[in-house]
Amino acid sequence: MPAPRTDREFERRLARLVNAREPGVLTGGLKGVEREALRVTPAGRIAQTPHPAALGSALTHPYITTDYSEALLELVTPPFAAHWQLQQYLCDIHQFVYRHLGDELLWVTSMPCLLRGDADIPIASYGSSNIGRMKHVYRIGLGLRYGRAMQAISGIHFNYSFPDRLWPVLHEALQARRAGQDFVDEVYFALLRNYRRHGWLILYLFGVSPAVCRSFFSGREAPADLEPHGTATLYGRYATSLRMSDLGYRNRSQAGVYVSVNSLEEYVRDLSRLVSTPHPAYQALGVRVDDQWQQLNANLLQIENEYYSFIRPKRVARSGERPTTALQRGGVQYVEMRSLDVSAFDPVGVNQHKLCFLEAFAALCALRASDPLAPEESGHFEANHLRVARDGREPGLRLWHGGRELALADWAAEVLEQMQGICELLDAADPARPYSVALERQRAKLDDPALLPSARLLHEMLGQDVAFRDLALGMSRLQRDYFNELYPPNERQLADLTVLAAESHAEQRAVEAADALAFDEFVARWFAGRLAGTT
């Protein structure tokens, strides 16, 4: 098959970067991880206990918070330039959490533990402040719109920004017309478009949620295409990531919702429209019922973050600032890649090989030519993601590729081949060649799909003839033991986290004491963009 035009353009761009003779031009990008994990009882049921006070305030702690549920921990790292620093921090924060969990465990898979319906999933609470109440009401709305079970799914988010030294070299290599932050935004949005085109590869290589506890479908009918394993488990024979399928985040409630990534302006326009457009089904639920808030509004999206995308452009927002406003103010600062499942095979849910690969994949997406995407074309690529999530390991699977079908294996091999030069640039003078090693590990999966983590998990479950929830519970116990027995612990870091926890409680009390607005007015001002400097 002749190489497509975009491949030749990519080779020219990569050659210009190499010929710029700037050593380490791609190295040193900032990396961070957000890892979600359910707290569960020793029997594997979702914890009904409050967020442990010793971990700090879920509202104000910078690194330990909660996601949808009071039981759904979210562990966040600061940004690091080196992968080993990131992994070390993740390890330290897990060890700190386990010191304060009592007999509870962290659930080690993306698909949740044994559930007894939506009422079994406690919604996260953030105190009495206006911002805390707003976060809680938003989650009430999510539960009404999509069901709480979907919100109990866990994931790994990888935050990444290119190194500053790259921008002037890349500007010259691309012979770009736009400059400054406009150029930076242009490159990041090219990355976003190519992630829509090729991001299915992340689900294929790293998806590890092919099975689910039958209780996930409590009160509703399970999909007919999932196969039973005993009485307690359902699985997809060729599934890679049920989490990222239409059973999980890519739910049918947002089918047809389109947000352009052709430019920052179009992205903000489309998200703003969704946040301001009423939806009849949500109007029927009511915003306030018997003076109780049910959702923040009755629009297609309550806030921008309700849009479940595989990747997001991000900028750190100021106090009271909406995400789209932050992007308009300062442009794209980094991207948040959201496709990684939590891996039960890795103590912190992810490993360095995956993160190295994602970093190189981000560079590939930024360097490849990236024409604007029409809504119909974007829909085809969305369908590729869903197909790989549900049937990615199906022999001979073919995906939509520019008006024709291409075998997944051929397309994947092509993408990995193009990443070779990028990995060599990222390895720079590192004799361990971590990026090239990470790439070779993924090539091995193409040669032997049994190495795919989704295949490995099914092999463990079916080979041991155990239910998914029992397999996950056993692995959760093993990982608890790993962190509790890890020696020597990083006592200095653990002490710092203890101080941060105390400081976060004090900060929450200060936020609550400073509130000067009625909650209704606070919400109105937030949506109007008039909250800066106001509590």
Task: Write up this protein.
A hairpin with a 5-residue loop joins strand 2 (64-66) and strand 3 (72-76). The strands form four sheets. Strands 1, 2, 3, 4, 5, 11 and 12 form a seven-stranded antiparallel β-sheet that branches. A three-stranded antiparallel β-sheet has the order 6-8-7, with helices on one face. The protein is an alpha+beta fold and 535 residues long. The chain has a single domain (5-528), classed as Creatine Kinase, Chain A, domain 2 (2-Layer Sandwich). Helices cover 46% and strands 11% of the residues. It has helices spanning 5-19, 83-98, 130-146, 148-151, 166-174, 180-198, 200-206, 264-276, 280-285, 323-330, 352-367, 375-391, 408-427, 434-447, 453-464, 468-485, 491-514, 519-528, and strands at residues 30-40, 64-66, 72-76, 105-106, 156-161, 211-213, 227-229, 233-235, 288-289, 292-293, 311-314, 334-340, 398-401, 404-407.
